[in-house]
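Protocol step 4 of 6.
Sequence for Homogentisate 1,2-dioxygenase (Eiseniibacteriota bacterium) entered exactly as in the expression construct, tag removed. Do not edit the line below.
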Amino acid sequence: MPFYQTRGEIPAKRHIAFKNPKGGIFFEELVGNEGFTGASSLLYHLQRPTRVTAIEHHKDLPWKAVSSTDLRPHHFRLGNLPPGGDAALDRTPFLYNHEVALSVVHPTKTTATFYRNSQADEIVYVAKGKGTLRSPYGKLAFSSGYYLVIPRGVIHSYEFASSDTFLFVVESTGVVRIPKRYRNSNGQLLEGAPYSERDIHTPVACDPVEEMGAFPVHTKMRNAITVHTLEAHPYDVVGWDGSYYPWAFDIRDFEPIVGRIHQPPPVHQTFAGDGFVVCSFVPRLYDFHPEAIPAPYHHTNAQSEELLFYASDEFMSRKGIEFGSATYHPDGMAHGPHPGKAEESIGKKSTDELAVMVDTFRPLKVCEAAMGVDDPAYPQSWLE
Ligand SMILES: [Fe+2]
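Step 5 output, structure tokens:
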């Protein structure tokens, strides 16, 4: 997590009686990972967070892979998937392995359900849309271009300004981190890092919601959703402190690192997970050597797979992509610019591209659900 934060009312010391002026005490809850040794926060509730009145199975979330083992690149036109449903519960998966799972959703419900992903941290890239992410920690405003980083186990809900929202979701089995090489030994972001603490948006405190009733929380675990009905509103928090909370980062605040000649993809790295990285390709000036080729060179990266999600219809090295496209290049084959794109890039001064790349270190599986929007002509699209 980024850094220590505190909101609302908290007692002078941890684990002491924190008197509720209405009588009794506030109820302390530690939310964190890695068994009391990872990042954590302490939250103070009006009611015990353990007051569960009902537990019901909602649905299984099987991520069915295609049976073919043929090795081929893919172009998924994910923007063509039909809209509908809930931001958390109605996602379409397209690639996964045991470390990372990728999905998209076009939610039409503007107020989403209470949800917590207890099996993965989530990075939600808002390709289109605007709204507020609510949680016991407060509210986070977002608009298109924002990454929302939601640690596992955090109950949250979305409020969208319209039904025209498109989210690209990265679920990480390991903890999502800011790359270590961007931080000094105190954890502070370095002067040379492409973003700083000022670019990280943390929750704005809200008054505790003092409501009793039935509050269904949809919990993802074991690749299924279980509904836990809480008796008290999950956002009944009077204060919290710690380093475990949802946060947001606007891709437009990623300061691109450019050079005289082509810089390799690690300069675009934004987040790290176990077995994958997330990179941001943002509008930037191109390389300034007089004979530089700004488009990338062909590459065969052993033990690395590339997924590019395009949030605009411009990209320096590819043709035929559109908003919502995703190209997948598996390990084992060369990839590179489409014919003409390298030549076309020579002498260009800048690019307006906007894309999110997920590179994994272990092979991915293609989901059946994505094959309906797969472009069958893509593997041959380098032929002239
Ligand atoms: Fe690549």
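Step 6, annotate. Residues 341-345 form the longest helix (5 residues).
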